[in-house]
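Q: Here's a chain of 84 amino acids. Please give me its 3D structure as tokens.
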Amino acid sequence: MRQLEMFPEDIRIERVAPEANMYRFYRLRLMPDLFGGVSLLREWGRIGTQGRHRIELFADAGQAANAMAELFRAKQKRGYQLVG
């Protein structure tokens, strides 16, 4: 599917609000798995820490990219901004 060319495979977003002592990051990465599918790796936490992570498995790259785009839009609504 050509959707991956229009949407990056690695996204890092941050939400910084010094007045609320809020320094958070969220990272989304698409990676191929050993079984021909695609994994969506989600990492989040306080900036400067390793944070937490979760891996979701998808049958193909299109499904994984759609899930990534949906999470990205949801985080943008909560005030996260692209980094770099």
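Q: Can you summarize the key feature?
A: Confidence is low (pLDDT under 50) at residues 1-5.
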